[in-house]
Design a protein that fits this description.
elongated, mainly beta
Length: 165
Amino acid sequence: MRRIVVLLLVAIPALTAPPGTIRITGQIPCAGYLAPADAEPGLLLVGSGTAVSIHAPPGRTSFTLSLRTNCSYRLVAAQLSGAGLQVVEGAVSAAGGGAHLAASALQASIAPVALGTAPTAFASGHRVSNGGNNRTVDNAILLRIVVESNGPEEAVANVALELVP
């Protein structure tokens, strides 16, 4: 029994930091923020945080979402009511410079997809931000999304942010 205690007492100093130093370790949890940035007349965007609702008039229209994440992500959409809604195309740009953008932030992909009642992924990418918070102007990307609705009534869909650690 004494040998075990002696071995433990000898091993403890090897596992600690040298005198006068502090070692801090931790892990930042995966987080993201999705918000409306712009919309063409007649298109309504409601909500922010992890989901935004789209109220699209008949025909082709577009809107822009602002996105910040510190990990990989997917945007998924599901139609809630109205005529058929399709994501036709999209583009990605920096919201306000690139000082706090991750190197691959602008390499996000937006794919055409017909929305149904089951959530369908239409956009994905890697980490967006290298620092800041939801008010930092240069740590977000803008996703301009073009949608088309068959009409005659407005189409309503929900866009949700899924984080991928």
